[in-house]
Specification:
The protein is α+β, with helices and mostly antiparallel strands. Helix content is 51%, strand content 9%. Helix 8 runs antiparallel to helix 9, helix 9 packs across helix 10 and helix 10 packs across helix 11.
């Protein structure tokens, strides 16, 4: 399924030939085989358009509404109920809360319902050869994708994913798939499209490898008096100011946060004013999945709503 967009052959054949030569020299691919594959690749101009208007460019109050819907919350409860065993196992093995794994899959693909409709090779080639702004990144992902297909014995023209080339229920890019996808049952396959247990194990492995702190908090909503707190609003996502310094700027933090704890103060745009949050190290780990504070807060809030409704359903 390629979609109903206008399609075009790759115009920059010199760049394609250079890429093929690299794959032959560095990874021992067959030149003729790759030439046949790239003759079948079709560029998708609509993908370039989609890349220029990501949802993360929205204000928080609009972005939040995409994910904090009753259908997505109840869908998360059902997904948890249907996959209790693998979620519990991953929480036990890696310390990643079940609700966080559920929320990631809920935000990414509505629990596997929306995994994308573009051939991955078309998406990656379009962005690698026809989107100069990020061509280096996407050509690297195209390289990883071809190696991945060889490793997993997949036909490179078959896998389907998002307009950016992200794949399966957890929407892994090819490099993430190669490094973090996990085989839950031990059947020598890492099927993140159709095997829910593999998808769950893959998300858990991703967070574990990015140093999730088991049992630790993620984020707190906070308030502040005056506007001295604005001094602490800075770029980046890593915790960069300790609690004592924030308290000195009149930010009201929960008493459970020790003075020496490193935090990240974040402001989220509401229709009237802003919401203030502090992110801890685990909040930063969520942003390793998608480098956006909006994304991480949506995952956290969805996880809490699903957890609450799951507990209610379990007690009925």
């Amino acid at each position: 399924m390629i979609g109903s967009f206008a399609q075009a052959e790759i115009k920059d054949r010199v760049a394609v030939d250079k890429f093929i030569n690299k794959m032959v020299e560095e990874h021992q691919f067959e030149q003729a085989e790759l030439a046949v594959i790239f003759d079948s690749v079709e560029l998708q101009p609509k993908i370039i358009e989609a890349m220029t208007r990501p949802a993360e460019g929205m204000p928080w109050y609009k972005y939040r509404k995409i994910f904090m819907r009753d259908s997505r919350i109840q869908g998360g409860v059902k997904f948890w109920q249907d996959n209790q065993q693998s979620l519990a196992k991953m929480q036990q093995v890696h310390g990643i809360p079940a609700e966080i794994i559920v929320a990631i899959l809920g935000v990414e693909t509505l629990y596997g319902e929306r995994t994308g409709g573009h051939r991955v090779i078309d998406a990656l080639a379009t962005l690698g050869f026809d989107y100069p702004k990020r061509s280096k990144f996407f050509l690297s992902e195209l390289e990883n994708f071809l190696i991945l297909c060889r490793e997993e014995k997949m036909n490179p023209l078959e896998p389907v994913g998002s307009y950016a080339g992200a794949m399966g229920m957890p929407q892994f890019m090819p490099s993430s798939y190669r490094h973090f996808a996990a085989d839950y049952e031990g059947d020598d396959k890492r099927d993140i499209w159709n095997n829910t247990a593999d998808a769950i194990a893959s998300v858990a492995n991703y967070f574990a490898k990015h140093h999730w702190q088991a049992g630790k908090d993620i984020a707190f909503a906070v308030t502040a008096t005056g506007d001295q707190y604005k001094q602490a609003l800075s770029k980046g996502l890593k915790p960069d100011i300790n609690a004592a310094e924030l308290r000195a700027l009149h930010v009201q933090l929960p008493e459970t946060i020790a003075d020496g704890e490193l935090l990240k103060l974040l402001s989220f745009e509401q229709e009237n004013g802003d919401d203030l949050w502090v992110g801890l190290e685990n909040f930063y780990v969520i942003t390793r999945y998608n480098h956006s504070p909006l994304y991480a807060l949506a995952v956290f809030q969805l996880s809490q709503a699903v957890k609450q409704q799951y507990a209610i359903a379990s007690n009925e």
